[in-house]
Write a structure and sequence with these properties.
Strand order of the largest sheet: 1-4-2-3
Strand content: 5-15%
Radius of gyration: 24 Å
Helix content: 25-40%
Number of strands: 4
Amino acid sequence: MGKNKQPINNMEWVHRDKLKANDYNPNKVAPVELELLKTSITLCGWTQPIVARQSGEIVDGFHRWTVSADEDIFAMTDGYVPVVYLSKEVDQAQQMVATIVHNRARGNHIILYMKNIVREMRDKHKYDDKKIQKMLGMEQEEIDRLYDFAPMTEKGSGSEFSKGWVPNTKEREFD
């Protein structure tokens, strides 16, 4: 197909009012993550386009489109959003597949890597917890848990586990 024929090669700035949501997207985002998305766009600008059918129906990027109505984000581009149209009109089943694979292909955060990031932000870059909360969209408890993430044997006094409870090692008879 060649790079010149890829949809991304034809990204357009389109007024958000010319797009519309689809009626089947199973991806729901909690309010805290929507705030994080706003922070992402405000801080970094538009880095990902919205994917749409030729009709303007959104295939991927519904939440980016949603937050584009925010006063500050709207003002950044006068209500225009980056859009990539699928190069050919797809039927409803193909569109549903495209929505799901776009959503699922993004992956998940691995807790051990997130622990390292939180520790580095606090220790090396001297971010306080309020700034980490705002920038990463985390609750204080999440920051505390990630920062203090260590195997159970490393926590506490460092002494042996208490002998307060010892499992019964005799075989039990069952009725």
